[in-house]
Automatic annotation (TrEMBL):
Protein purpose: Decomposes hydrogen peroxide into water and oxygen; serves to protect cells from the toxic effects of hydrogen peroxide.
Active-site residues, Swiss-Prot/TrEMBL: 75, 147
Annotated heme binding sites: 72, 111, 160, 358, 362, 369
GO BP annotation list: hydrogen peroxide catabolic process; response to oxidative stress
Keywords: Heme, Hydrogen peroxide, Iron, Metal-binding, Oxidoreductase, Peroxidase
Organism: Aeromicrobium chenweiae
Residue(s) of cross-link: 3'-histidyl-3-tyrosine (His-Tyr): 339-362
Gene Ontology CC: one annotated term: cytosol
Residues of the full protein shown: 62 to 599 of 762
EC supergroup of this enzyme: oxidoreductase
Annotated protein name in UniProt: Catalase
GO MF, one annotated term: heme binding
Cofactors required: heme
């Protein structure tokens, strides 16, 4: 299977894609037999009964009956667009990735989403937003599968089913507001206090973006870059919207959800249609790849932590422009299969236990969602690089492979790339040392602090933004039925900020508890001057 042809804008070219789907002016059956009538079933006489013999009737209804595929287990509701990424070359000393070389331009497909709602839910709900970008590079696909919030609820992927179960509509009546989806969410985040930081971002105006075009995006995890000499660096990826970061007020979000549940997808499609192509700069925070994988006292493998930009500025390495709407929602937005583990040479994973679990989850879920193991052959998922894999057969196999049995080394297949010497341009797993001495089920002590960065974020907000946060906690916790859960969450707020806790407690008509830890303005980070070190790029 070859690459899907794309127009210069990055969108699939209509002619080649629709050729397989629709040819000629005549209506036909799926096997190409011209039809004369598609409005009347074949009947024994004008008043029936209908005859089983009617192939067109059965084929038409059978196919319609199977038009839907399972929605994504998370991030089910999304909107996407085609575009192009232009690299400025600033990262080329850090990574050998060809698409980050100076002047390289790469087609992209970007899907924005909510996390918890079903496919038909409203756009403007309070939630995290997905920000997933597929780069069709000359060295294969690179997917940056991020969110609009820089931290995540949990530190270990083994808790992912739990946090999602706690947030999704309740299993009996499937209503989020029913007893007890609010209870389960707040029960989870107050019992698993590592979730407090992400929850605080959700309660802030970041949880109700005004537009997909006005959101930041974050790769969240730390990634490892490797350059042509084999030297490695640790980075965090950031998308910075050229339109700035803007949010709705809670009242606007509520009204939009009722009046126009498609508010965000309409906004994105309309802007692109009108030629107002949204742009984001891609940047990296750069950290030395030390054996500790820490920076400024912060564990780089802990996805509930940020590195403040004052300590490690975001350095721009390229720009993405979204310039074409999908031609077919199902074929593109619904069938696109992002995978956090789709790397190209020059970019690799770190040992972040949240990330490691994602490496399994995406392939596994797509096996069911997209009906078998050949979803990489779906046009929107096809790389623009040549594919020469040893994957054969299976459900929805479109390719007709020829030649002899695929295995390597193979002296019968006319040449074996594996014997041709070490090709440094291929993907190499960076030989990073691991310190393991025993198998354990436990977190490092550096994952323990759940409050100081939550406090740091809250105290970075303006008074108006802080008032919105207090209102959001009061509203959301007010939907809980269990008093013990409200009290436990108030205890967490007491450990974050006394004034915030007091305001929310008053709103709920409950006493404000005393903190159980010392409250300071200090973050665990030493001052900037203590960090030292030189950065590979300015
Ligand atoms: C889907 C981001 C953690 C499992 C997605 C999508 C995004 C995303 C953006 C939607 C992709 C699309 O538009 O199609 C993130 C981020 C995470 C995170 C930023 C943490 C930093 C996890 C974890 C797991 C997981 C820990 C599982 C252990 C999934 C699954 C899907 C998904 C199963 C649905 C994929 C599909 O059906 O194609 N995630 N996720 N995610 N995520 Fe995550």
């Amino acid at each position: 299977h070859g690459p899907i042809p794309h127009s210069p804008t990055g969108a699939p070219s209509k002619d080649s894609d629709t050729a397989a789907a629709q040819q000629g002016a005549r209506l036909t059956t799926a096997t190409g037999v011209p039809l004369r009538d598609t409005d009347h079933s074949l009947k024994a006489g004008p008043r029936g009964p209908v005859l089983l013999q009617d192939h067109h009737l059965r084929e038409k209804i059978m196919h319609f009956d199977h038009e839907r595929i399972p929605e994504r287990v998370v991030h089910a509701r999304g909107a996407a667009a085609h575009g192009v990424f232009r690299s400025n070359g600033a990262a080329s000393e850090l990574t050998k990735a060809a698409f980050l070389a100076e002047g390289a331009t790469t087609p992209v497909f970007t899907r924005f989403s909510t996390v918890l709602g079903s496919r038909g839910s409203a756009d403007t709900v309070r939630d995290t937003r997905g920000f997933a970008v597929k780069f069709y590079t000359t060295e294969g696909n690179f997917d940056l599968v991020g969110n609009n919030i820089p931290v995540f609820f949990i530190q270990d992927a083994i808790k992912f089913p739990d946090v999602i179960h706690a947030g999704k509509p309740h299993p009996d009546v499937e209503i989020p507001q029913a007893q007890s989806a609010h209870d389960t969410f707040w029960d989870f985040v107050s019992l698993h206090t590592e979730a407090q930081h992400h929850a605080m971002w959700n309660m802030s105006d970041r949880g109700i973006p005004r537009s997909y075009r006005m959101m930041e995006g974050f790769g969240v995890h730390t990634f490892r870059l490797v350059n042509a000499e084999g030297a490695t660096t640790l980075v965090k990826f950031h998308w910075k919207p050229r339109l700035g970061v803007h949010s709705l007020t809670w009242e606007e979000a509520q009204i939009a959800a009722g009046v126009d549940p498609d508010f965000h997808r309409r906004d994105l499609a309309d802007a692109i249609e009108a030629g107002a192509h949204p742009e984001w700069d891609l940047g990296v925070q750069v950290f030395p790849d030390t054996p500790e994988q820490m920076f400024a006292g912060i564990d780089l493998l802990d996805s509930t932590k940020i590195i403040p930009e004052e300590l490690a500025p975001v350095q721009v390495i390229g720009t993405m422009t979204l310039n074409a709407n999908p031609g077919n929602y199902f074929a593109e937005t619904e069938q696109v299969a992002f995978h956090a583990g789709h790397f190209v040479p020059g970019i690799d994973a770190t040992d972040d236990p949240l990330f490691q679990g994602r490496l399994f989850s995406y392939l596994d879920t797509q096996l069911t969602r997209l009906g078998g193991p050949n979803f990489d052959q779906i046009p929107i998922n096809r790389p623009h690089a040549p594919v020469n894999d040893m994957l054969r057969d299976g459900f929805h196999q479109d390719a007709v492979h020829t030649g002899i049995a695929p295995y390597k080394p193979n002296s019968l297949d006319g040449g074996c790339p594996f014997l041709a010497g070490e090709d440094m341009s291929g993907f190499i797993d960076v030989p990073h040392p691991i310190e393991a001495s025993v198998k354990v089920r436990e977190n490092p002590a550096t994952f323990d602090d759940h409050y100081s960065q939550t406090r740091l974020f809250y105290r970075s907000l303006t008074p108006v933004e802080q008032a919105h946060v207090a209102q959001a906690y009061t509203f959301e916790l007010g939907k809980c039925y269990e008093q013990a859960i409200k009290e436990r969450q108030l205890q967490a707020l007491a450990n974050i900020d006394a004034e915030l806790c007091a305001t929310v407690a008053a709103g709920l008509g409950l006493p404000a508890p005393e903190p159980t830890i010392p409250l300071t303005d200090e973050t665990p980070s030493p001052a900037l001057s203590q960090i030292g070190g030189t950065w590979p790029i300015d």
